[in-house]
Design brief:
Number of strands: 12
Helix content: 10-25%
Bound molecules: zinc ion
Shape: globular
CATH class: Alpha Beta
Structural class: alpha/beta
Number of domains: 1
CATH superfamily: Collagenase (Catalytic Domain)
Radius of gyration: 18 Å
Largest sheet: 6 strands, mixed
Order of helices and strands: HEHEHEEEHEEEEEHEHHE
Oligomer: single chain
Distance between the termini: 45 Å
Number of helices: 7
Strand order of the largest sheet: 5-2-6-8-7-12
Strand content: 15-25%
Length: about 300
């Protein structure tokens, strides 16, 4: 099914010209369930998300995966982030630089919902003081719905007032899909191209949403071998992180939600969270077949200096 869809997407590329500036950004307001930017255009309500200018750390969960060693996963993640880091904006470097800070020990990183295990704090004093910008593999079970059609999920934690990203967390659905660290992936289509997955997820990590351009890395659906940024992806990352980034907005502060609502179960109230100067998480999943975007509420975040 994945192969068939990928082939269809490739065919569409041949007959459908890519629109200019088809990129979209994740915002502080959740798009309605089922919202498809390829049909309705970018969701633009809310404040666009972005990291502060400067260096942005990421790390692999040290457990890596039964399918992919830590060394291979690290190599592939570094390639994925390098694709974005190396974008040039009128010949100049981006205003950010994502870098590998090394493997990170993640609770329950080998199976189950590692994020839920990590985010169990109920007030700000119990939150981990260090930001975790981590990529993990869910080998044992995919803790979200639509496992057969979901390849990965990136959850971004951000300030509800200014859209500043505090942390991002990428989970790869290694429980349901066979992965390969080889690039290009084997032509038989049995294994999913991990570098293509992580290049796309790195875009979410950096605050980009799904693009309307079917040729873009940030298009919602998997395409094997898609590891090189298109002009639309470059336009996106240059727009968010120009070489000389403007002064960042003032942060609205940080805290954990009182009572620590369980992730994935509580609805959110934008007004209530904004009034408290809190943060929110938004998840964007990559799929191998059509589906809807996900979202999660927030329990806590880890502080990061602002500006850096
Ligand atoms: Zn995606």
């Amino acid at each position: 099914m994945r192969v068939a869809f990928a082939s269809l997407a490739a065919l569409l590329l041949l007959i459908r010209p890519s629109p200019a500036d088809a990129y979209c950004r994740t915002t502080t307001l959740k798009a309605p369930a089922g919202y498809d930017p390829a049909v309705s255009g970018c969701w633009t309500q809310g404040v666009p998300l972005a990291w502060p200018a400067g260096r942005i750390p990421y790390g692999l969960g040290s457990a890596a995966s039964e399918q992919v060693s830590l060394a291979d996963a690290t190599r592939v993640a570094d390639l994925a982030f390098s694709a974005w880091n190396e974008a040039r904006c009128d010949g100049k470097s981006l205003g950010i630089d994502a870098y590998d800070e090394g493997a990170v020990s993640v609770p329950d990183g080998g199976s189950g919902d590692a994020l839920a295990a990590w985010s169990s704090c109920s007030d700000s004093s119990s939150c981990d003081p260090h930001a975790h910008d981590v990529i993990v593999f869910d080998d044992g079970a995919w803790p979200y719905n639509d496992a057969a059609n979901t390849l990965a999920l990136t959850t971004v934690t951000f300030g509800v007032d200014d859209g500043r990203i505090f942390e991002a967390y990428t989970e790869v659905n290694s429980a349901q899909h066979k992965l390969t660290a080889a690039e290009p992936p084997p032509a038989n289509g049995v294994a999913i191209d991990l570098q293509a997955i992580l290049t796309h997820e790195a875009g979410h990590f950096l605050g980009l949403a799904h693009a309307t351009d079917t040729n873009a890395i940030m298009y919602a659906y998997y395409h094997p071998g898609a590891v090189h940024l298109t002009a639309d992806d470059v336009a996106a990352i240059c727009a968010v992180y120009p070489p000389q980034a403007p002064a960042p907005p003032t942060s609205g502060g940080c805290a954990c939600t009182a009572g620590g609502a369980p992730l994935g179960t509580a609805g959110w109230s934008a007004g209530a969270l904004a009034a408290l100067g809190l943060i929110r998480r938004s998840s964007t999943r990559s799929r191998s077949a059509p589906g809807r975007a996900g979202a999660r509420d927030v329990a806590c975040r880890s502080p990061r200096s602002w500006p850096p």
